[in-house]
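My hope is that you will study the protein record below before we discuss the fold together.
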Amino acid sequence: MSRARKAALWIGGALVAVAIVVAIVIVVVRPGPWTGTITSVTYRQSQAVPGFDDSPKTTTDPQQLDALTAVLRDDGWHPGASVVEVRPGCAGGVTTGLQLTLGDGTKTMLQTYSCGRDNSRLTTDVTNLVSGWRKSQ
C-alpha cells in the first residue's frame, strides 16, 4: 500500500472518530426537560385590535406559576431559549412576552407570536395560558 493511500485512510479514520465523538457530546450535553422553579412572571400580550389592553401584569400566584412551569417543561423549553414565530401577512396575531424570575434569582425572557394554525405547541400553550390569565382579571 502506498504512503499516500495509508495517509488518506488514516485521515479518513480520524475524521470518522472525531465525528463520532462530536455526536456523542451533542447527545450527552443536550439538556433534558427543564425542572426549575419560577418565583414570578411579568407577562404582556399584544394584538392589533382596537382597545386591546397590552399593559404588563405580574403574578406570583403559585397555581399560575405551576401551570406555566408545567407548560414550559412539557413543551421542552429551557431558560434562555426563545421562540419567535412571525408569519408575513398575518392579521390579528397575538404576541406574548414573558419575563420570568427563576428560583435561583436569574431572569430570562420568552416571547412567542401566535398566528394561524401552524404554531409550535409551546407557542399555542403559552398563548392560551396567558390569555386565560388576562380574561380572569
Summary: The chain has a mean pLDDT of 81.
